[in-house]
């Protein structure tokens, strides 16, 4: 006699006994996913498939390697094509790792290549699964999305190493971010005027003028400068299309 598949029986029993309220919420896809995770338990889903994260750097103050805070915040992500909501997680900027609150005392390091996107503390990130030698790869924040163009920002951290009498510790600081532009999922680095012109060779004159006229803004607030540049490139793209 074959042994019973208890996880399957549990899931089947849960589904056929959906309470009326949950059935109504199932009409909303997000509510349905939340209900399913609550019934099964996120730790029993395909999301909790990874290794225990071991911290490699000792820190002693708030100069740390994470986005915003070392503490977990509720966020959402798409993992192996499946959306998950209200997941406790944090983003290790320096190592470019998304970590989840594990079932033990250590964070859970899930398979980064299986993450399509995540949303945390008001930031929206996509994962560019290119070869690590490519100019654009890893987690990028979506700063702007207009038409067929996306403006992306790569958060970065740098560190200083301190040698105390009895141990070594590190302090992490925000480093110069990287930028990229995606045109119909074709990713181009955009960290300099030359790189932008390389992505839009037909608009070289306008791009040079833009950099020249907004040189001060590019130094004082590069995010705003890049947003304005992306908007201008979108306009030029429409003009070029209309002129054909």
From TrEMBL:
Keywords: Signal. Residues 1-22 form the signal peptide. This is DUF4369 domain-containing protein. It comes from Antarcticibacterium flavum.
């Amino acid at each position: 006699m074959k042994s019973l598949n208890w996880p399957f029986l549990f899931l089947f029993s849960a589904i056929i006994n959906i309470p009326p309220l949950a059935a109504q919420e199932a009409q909303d896809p997000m509510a349905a996913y939340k209900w399913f995770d609550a019934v099964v338990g996120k730790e029993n889903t395909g999301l909790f498939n990874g290794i225990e994260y071991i911290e490699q750097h000792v820190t002693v103050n708030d100069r740390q390697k994470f986005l915003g805070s070392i503490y977990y915040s509720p966020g959402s992500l798409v993992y192996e094509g499946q959306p998950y909501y209200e997941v406790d997680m944090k983003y290790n900027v320096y190592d470019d790792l998304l970590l989840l609150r594990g079932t033990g005392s250590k964070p859970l390091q899930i398979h980064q290549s299986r993450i399509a996107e995540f949303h945390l503390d008001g930031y929206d990130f996509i994962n560019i699964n290119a070869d690590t030698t490519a100019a654009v790869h890893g987690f990028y924040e979506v700063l702007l999305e207009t038409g067929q163009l996306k403006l992306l920002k790569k958060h970065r951290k740098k560190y200083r190493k301190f040698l105390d009498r009895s141990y070594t510790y590190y302090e992490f600081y925000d480093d110069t971010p990287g930028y990229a532009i995606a045109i119909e999922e074709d990713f181009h680095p955009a960290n300099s005027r030359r790189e932008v012109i390389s992505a839009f060779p037909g608009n070289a004159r306008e791009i040079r003028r833009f950099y020249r006229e907004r040189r001060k803004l590019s130094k004082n607030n590069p995010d705003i400068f890049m947003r304005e540049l992306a908007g201008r490139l979108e306009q030029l793209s429409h003009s070029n299309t209309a002129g054909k």
